[in-house]
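thought: fold this chain, then report.
action: predict
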Amino acid sequence: MLSADRPEQAAALRSGPDAVLAGLPRPLLIDEWQLVPDVLGAVKRAVDEDASPGQFLLTGSARSDALAQGWPATGRVVRISHWGISRRELTGDVSKRSFFDRIYDGEIGLLRAPNQPPDVRDYIAFALASGFPQVIRSASPLARRHWLRSYVEQLVARDAALIDEGRDPSRLRRYLQALAANTAGVPEHKTLFDAAGITRTTALAYDGVLELVMATEQVPAWTSNRLSRIAHAPKRYLVDGALLGPLLGVDDLAGLGDGDLLGRLLDTFILSQLRVEREVSESAPQFFHLRQEGGRHEVDLLAESPDGRVIAIEIKAAAAVDASDARHLSWLREKLGDAFVAGVVFHTGPLAYPLGDRIHALPIAAIWGPSASQYEFSQSALAPA
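observation:
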């Protein structure tokens, strides 16, 4: 392993990266590569000489694209986004196929929550516990809060300045707070930059900064020639819902205040779990949201595969749902026909059950839970003889 944030290793890489790489065994992990961008050229030359896959693993911060001087490894390096640690990685079976692959293969009826399913308080705790490894490892709630506050301060005062020295940390923080208050929403952009006291031009620059450091994400609106009057504004998310703590003072259920913020937190949490599932999915879907002008029909999230097949998702902050909660999914199913693979209504209760043709109610924990066959086996194994 090489780490470019160690002075002696960085000095060696700067003076002779090709010689350093040639003298080390493969596979080789190079951490914080963006601190010595010339190492990419050395990797390129090494791979050109020997095209065997899996020789190098390059890891770096989210701002590496902005700090590196060009990208000479095009066509030679596969890029993988590293999101937060998911619940499946913490408690589930990491060897099983992606949530999306199982649905695309027609297995939605087999998806279940774990044997001891979470309830709404558990889901809130999961969301506010964060996907940051440093937070997950901390046993103290106070230490977690301190770390998250420190992360936000570094984000607005240091990381953003490294990308663009002209950014005002206090204004950037206000803009991030406005985004946090509207996470999982489709706010007018003017509403956000007015709340932060900045111009549209500055807000666009802030969007670029926050997305580059993977603090926020915009999920684009889905369009189709089968549908009319579709709104085109993106849906905006915090990448990690735990940032609601330092930004809005939300550290537990009491801090949520109302059902609207609870729904936003659950939506943000679910997307944080599905991002990881997408990264390991063979179907490689892209995320969208759907909203007709005037709000007549809305679908929280669409996962569209490269061949145009769609999984539609609704999210409800309720322990039980019925067919009325799936009405927008039913409408979309009729519009799309065979391209509509499945509709999912996520809820905070323990049970999975059908709501209509190709539409199922699923506990949120079904994202990382077992299949029905696994569940039934584990139940029978636990039953008394």
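thought: worth noting. Residues 374-385 have pLDDT under 50 and may be disordered.
final: tokens above.
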